[in-house]
Structures are given as C-alpha cells and as structure tokens.
TrEMBL record:
DNA-binding region(s), residue ranges: 37-56
SUPFAM superfamilies reported for this sequence: Homeodomain-like, Tetracyclin repressor-like, C-terminal domain
Pfam families, per the entry: TetR_C_24, TetR_N
Organism: Marinobacter vinifirmus
Signal peptide annotation: none
Record carries keyword DNA-binding: yes
Residues that span the membrane, as ranges: none
A molecular function (GO) term: DNA-binding transcription factor activity
Descriptive protein name: TetR family transcriptional regulator
HTH tetR-type domain location: 14-74
Keyword terms of this UniProt record: DNA-binding
Length: 209
C-alpha cells in the first residue's frame, strides 16, 4: 500500500519550513548571510540540521529563497511608494526617498540584500530583482515623458541608472565596517537621502526637483 501523507503531516512540514525561513532571515538581519550558519539556523528553528536539507537542497538554495522573499517585500514597498498621487517626478522622488530611508533604518538587512558578497545563486536573484526595480522606475519615467514632466530619453537605460546610482550610493553607508564606526545621526541620514534623490532626479529631468 502506497504511503499517503496526511494533512496534519503536511501542515507540520509547512510549519517547519516556515520556521527555518524565519530563523534564517533572523540570522541574516543580525549579521548578514555570512553569519547564517546552518547549525545556528537549525538551533533557532528548533530542528535538526538534516531537516533543513529535507526542505532545501543546499545552503545556497535556502539563501536564494530567503533573498527572494526579502527582496520581493522591498520591491512591493517601492511599488506602493510609486502609487501615490502626483506627477511622475513627485512619485519617483517619493519612491527613491522611501527606498533609501528603509535601507538606512535597517542597514544590515539592506547590506545583505544590496551589496554583501554572496553565492552565485543568490547573486542571480540579486540581478533579477535589480531588473524588477528598474521595471517599476521605467514605467514611472514613461509616465513622466507622456505628461511632460520628464524629457524624452531611453527609459530602460534611465531606469537602470537610477537603480545603479541609489544602490552604489548606499554601499558605503551600509557597509558593516562603516556603520559600526558612525554615530546614529538622523541629520546625516537625511542629508544623504536628499543628496541621492537630488542627483537621481537631476539626471532624469536636468533640473533640481
């Protein structure tokens, strides 16, 4: 007689998988992907190390899943920020500012998602989500060109430049070696965000927003 998994067992497996995911993200949020050791994850999740590999083929597969889930949340936040009432420049200002502010409020999480050296599978996910951000920005730029608030230009390249500019500008401030040495100063963060957003919008419009 063939083995049939019961609903209770499926729920138990789903709960174990979710706990592994939550524990992994807890490790990443605390010290980046480098601190997310399988033994530590298993301990936090309350499962055996072998249980992790029953849900994920490898450590890299687990990390790729964590990256997908965490970054999708950030992409969704950018989409929400772009959905405000206003012209395209105002919406892009709001979205870029929101992105940078969220990153600076959770520097270790943002560092892990934006710049931390990672395995190839995770890097593939990073590239895919950079394209996701660019897609959102590209549509907003198209809207701006249509309404006359943004001059005509290559929207795909412009959107890619926005993603690159804001990501690169945040690498230094988010770096664990730098954040550990700098005082917690909202004024510094506000100045940084203002400078990044100003640079991006000048590049798009040729004028300061």
């Amino acid at each position: 007689m063939a083995y049939r998994e019961t609903e209770k067992m499926r729920q138990r497996k789903a709960q174990a998988r979710q706990k592994i995911i939550e524990s992994t993200w807890e490790c990443v949020a605390d010290g980046g992907f480098q601190s997310a050791r399988v033994t530590r994850i298993a301990g936090l999740a309350g499962v055996a190390t072998g249980t992790i590999y029953r849900h994920f083929e490898s450590r890299e597969d687990l990390f790729a899943e964590i990256f997908r889930l965490a970054t999708q949340r950030e992409v969704d936040k950018v989409a929400e920020a772009l959905a405000i009432t206003g012209n395209a420049v105002q919406r892009l200002d709001h979205a870029l500012r929101h992105f940078a502010q969220r990153a600076l409020k959770g520097p270790m999480k943002a560092w892990a998602l934006i710049a931390e050296p990672v395995d190839p599978k995770v890097e593939e996910e990073r590239l895919a989500y950079r394209r996701a951000y660019a897609n959102l920005f590209e549509q907003a730029i198209r809207d701006g060109i249509a309404e006359g608030t943004i001059p005509d230009q290559n929207t795909r390249l412009a959107a890619t430049c926005l993603v690159g500019a804001i990501s690169e500008a945040l690498v230094g401030p988010l770096s664990p070696t730098q954040t550990s040495e700098l005082p917690d100063n909202d004024n510094n963060d506000n100045e940084l965000v203002d400078t990044i957003v100003c640079f991006c919008l000048r590049g798009l419009t040729g004028t300061r927003s």
